[in-house]
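seq:
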Amino acid sequence: MDIARPDLARKKRARLIAYGSLIVVAVPLLAVAVSRLKPAPPSVERSAVSVDTVRRGEMLRDVRGIGTLVPVDVRWIPAQSSARVDKIVLQSGATVKPDSIILELSDQQLERDTVDAEYAYKAAQADLANLKVQLSNSLMIQKGTAADIESEYQQAKMQADVDRQLSEKGIQAALTAKKSAVVAEQLGIKKQLVQEQLKIADDAAGAQIAAQQAHLEQQRVLYELKKRQLDALHVRAGLNGVLSAVSVEVGQQVSAGTNLVRVADPSHLKATVQIPETQAKDVAIGQKATIDTHNGSAEGHVSRVDAGVVNGTVAVDVSFNSALPLGARPDLSVDGTIEIERLPNVLYVGRPVQSQTDSETSLFRLLAGGTEAARVNVELGRASVNSVEVIRGLQVGDQVILSDMSAWDTYDRVRLE
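struct:
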């Protein structure tokens, strides 16, 4: 028969209670421990990221932009008067000389006006010649009258002197001497008046001639203007170069001032580079520049910085200091690099993606062994196209990832494979 053993039952219950208590305590502790474990860092292919080493030394600050080669000497030739396009002699791309005719225009009203202006000019010439003859004759008559009075005055003066001497000697009456003196005095006054009238007439003649000459000059200028306008109906290039644009068609009616053709000198080019407005603030005239034509490079300098902003960019003109590579021509696409300054003895690194000048950012710095990278806060200073100054957060020799790591913004560590 079985023998009851109460002590064994008590021991069994005690063990069960102990195990249960241990489980109740262990499970939460285990959960806390597991929750505190850091997740494994994500993997990043090393070949997919760009890594650079922090250096100290001279850092070149520059900016870049794309642009085109444009002629320095460009001339738009406008219509001198309202006209009709009769013929296009040369097409865009043709090589031209100063006297090369590009367009033939016509304007019948201008032709009539030119003829009228020519006859008006010739009539003014004839009027001036006739006026000079008339005034010359008039002056000659007045000069003759003045000469006669001068002669009478001299005779009366001599007679008065003789009568005076005879009167003083008692040979002739004193009254006769006085009469002779009065006659001489009157002729002297008349002589003076005639001389003044002659001077006035001479001045008046000069004024009339000057007025007629001014009228003649006006007619001459008008006639020459009409002749130039008539000659301008044969639209000429005006310089050695290439016809780069013809902006009218045969049969088109154009008004005065309308741009007809554009002529450029392809032998003298400059580069117009579009620089982002955020970088253009440091660009100044005279700075060194390098232009890449994709067939070679040429050195130059900044010659103009546009005051306005168009589509987020500023136009910068670069004049060349050396000959351009072969194949350089107007409208050729180029890349331009402008040297802003050289910073001596600074800590710098390659410019990370999406980094800004004078800002704080976070970068992944490679740890010892180079198999992992940890996020660090970095303060950046002045920036260039390919490099940026490091103010704080990195040291010489540190290696950082420059590629876009926004996909790992939630991680402080990554593993490189």
